[in-house]
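Checklist before submission:
- one chain only
- standard amino acids only
- sequence pasted in full

Submission:
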Amino acid sequence: MKLDHIMFVANDLHAGIKHVQDLSGISATGGGSHPAGGTRNALMSFGDAQYLEIIAPDPAQTIDGTLGDELRMAEQPFIRTWAAATKDFEPVVAAAAAAGYQHQIVAMSRTRPDGIELAWRLLFVTHHPFGLSLPFFIDWQDSPHPADDAPAGCGLKKFTVSLPEPDALRTFCDAIGLEVHIETGGARMQAIIDSPRGEITLS
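Returned file contents:
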């Protein structure tokens, strides 16, 4: 089990794309809207079935009460959370139950600009103390992976999760076989990326 994608938030999609392009030299391309989610995204591939998702409010949707409603308040682009890829939710469900946490499974879909529909399932571990430092889990089922045809040219060198007291998160990730760098420090997430313009950092 490994990182699938990083959710990088902006209050406007075009501004988020420009922010990443100015740093990296690569322009993410539109991935589509999330129906009823109030958001739309643009993607940039890291290769190896991993990618950066730039996500922002979708002006074509009613966003009150949706994730898009939260994202429009972002004062500057930042890493909100991350997703881990798995084909089997059961180990995560079992580890969550053993730790006294709960979970929720949600089915989602979106249609790409080329008309291809993607459908996937998400598992959210809930009632835990880690906030957004703990990823949500994604099963792409039979859909093509978004990293396969998103703009390439960048590689994910290192992704780090920092918490003041990281031991419990480290124990949980070890229990499910999730590979991630976890450090002691202020609560944040950081991605170090190799790009055509050199090494860049998103946090």
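Reviewer check: The chain has a mean pLDDT of 95.
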